[in-house]
DNA sequence: GGGCCTTCCTGTCGATCTGACAAAAAGCTA
DNA sequence: TAGCTTTTTGTCAGATCGACAGGAAGGCCC
């Protein structure tokens, strides 16, 4: 700590967003096709640099959330910092990654200024090599892992649903994020046993197929007790592979 | 995203360290007395700016860990980003906070270039108002909360212990971090039941008082199953207040 | 050595929680 | 009304948890 002439470096700060949602029972992440170098034409996470020296970091994340995905009032939490030297060929860029959870809404992607935004299945992304820009593949992996863990201990799953939802809707969230199939009877009992997790609203849901389901809304509790333990064993069908089918 | 003349801002990047350890059954955090403005003379977390534009952020954290606390090879994980405009009166500074866990070693603080480093009890810090520089009070709170949660689900507790330890040592970690008293019999059963958490080494420990205790070392498992549930109820003595005494 | 202290370790019991089922309830379609 | 679907309520055995009893293994003092 000499007082001489040393000056600490100033560095470019960016935000990147891992926006997860459920579409047709599949977990999907929002990607945008890059319109500038580097990685021109490659898919990347939505994000960008701080606007000016006075913009708050989370405010920048919400701004990008609105600009690039047309989303507001969704769950948003910090995921981590990605700042290895060399991760951006333009020079030193430190990126703060955020995890956002969006409910499956009627209109898929509205108000995106870059029309090159699209939802991509997390399954395809993690297994089949889809080349992404920068270290965004790793960021997405970390984001999904975060979501998986938080589904166990917190009420995060309700962020995937709309204002009201059925217990089956909630089960689809758990199945998609964890990539497993769950027993509906036990899931039902467990969810209702977690105090403060969900609150019944009076009404029922349009039964497209079977018995009408009761509707619930998110409860006040953030930490689940007892937790939704991710069990080691799964029903005969085992892991979910693709398609909701599983017609044995 | 105009291509005009706009240039993203460059910002000062710092690291701050929440270094936790156990000293005489109490959870303590390392603080240093500031030698420069702002907050001259106030206690603050160890930390500092990146050395140059090419230093990795975690490397900077390890450098500070070594320089200011004389520690190496301790558990270190990212805690979060603290970057609100205005948190540093000098201008915009974004700080990446890290959580470090140090075992209770023989020599308390060695090799600190700032001799103004000292351990402070977390209890005193969180309850009695001890003014800290910047937003470091909040960072410490977040660090302790992180430690509390991770003690439940991961093998983080072993990071507070040395190479080998007894189950009682481990229990002291849980009691100090959670601020509760635990039943030794149930704790023993639970720890031994968590598969891969601890591995017995053959020997016993010098019994200063009672029956010699078996020694263990940390196991390979990072995620505990079953977890060490933080129960709602506690033995009659209730919360730990101060002092190991509890002589009724 | 014999009490008596301490702490460590093993075990027991009832309450709670979990996973694997059965079966009833409540809609739709034919 | 029969048959199909999905939701909801149970049942039952096994795992786990908190509260506690009691034996094991040292040291200390007489």
TrEMBL record, chains A, B:
Keyword Cytoplasm: no
Signal peptide: none
Alphabetical keyword list: Hydrolase
GO molecular function, one term: 8-oxo-7,8-dihydrodeoxyguanosine triphosphate pyrophosphatase activity
Listed EC numbers: 3.6.1.55
Residue ranges occupied by any Nudix hydrolase domain in the UniProt entry: 10-146
Annotated segments matching region Disordered: 226-248
PANTHER family per UniProt: ADP-RIBOSE PYROPHOSPHATASE, SLR1690 PROTEIN
Protein name, UniProt field: 8-oxo-dGTP diphosphatase
UniProt source species: Nonomuraea endophytica
């Amino acid at each position: 700590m000499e007082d001489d002439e040393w000056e600490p470096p100033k560095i470019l700060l960016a935000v990147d967003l891992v926006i997860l949602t459920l579409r047709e029972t599949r977990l999907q992440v929002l990607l945008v096709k890059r319109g500038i170098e580097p990685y021109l034409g490659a898919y990347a996470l939505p994000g960008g640099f701080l606007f000016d020296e006075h913009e708050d970091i989370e405010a920048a994340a919400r701004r990008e959330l609105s600009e690039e995905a047309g989303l507001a009032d969704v769950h948003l939490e910090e995921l981590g910092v990605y700042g290895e030297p060399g991760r951006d060929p333009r020079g030193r860029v430190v990126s703060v990654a955020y995890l956002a959870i969006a409910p499956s809404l009627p209109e898929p992607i509205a108000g995106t200024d870059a029309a090159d935004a699209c939802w991509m299945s997390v399954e395809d992304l993690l297994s089949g090599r889809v080349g992404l820009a920068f270290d965004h593949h790793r960021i997405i992996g970390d984001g999904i892992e975060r979501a998986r863990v938080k589904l166990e201990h917190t009420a995060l799953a309700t962020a995937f649903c709309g204002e009201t939802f059925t217990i089956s809707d909630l089960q689809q969230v758990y199945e998609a994020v964890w990539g497993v199939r769950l027993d509906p009877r036990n899931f039902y009992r467990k969810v209702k046993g977690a105090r403060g997790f969900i609150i019944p609203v009076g009404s029922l849901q349009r039964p497209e197929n079977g018995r009408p389901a009761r509707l619930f809304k998110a409860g006040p509790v953030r930490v689940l007790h007892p937790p939704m333990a991710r069990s080691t064993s799964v029903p005969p069908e085992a892991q979910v592979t693709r398609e909701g089918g599983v017609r044995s």
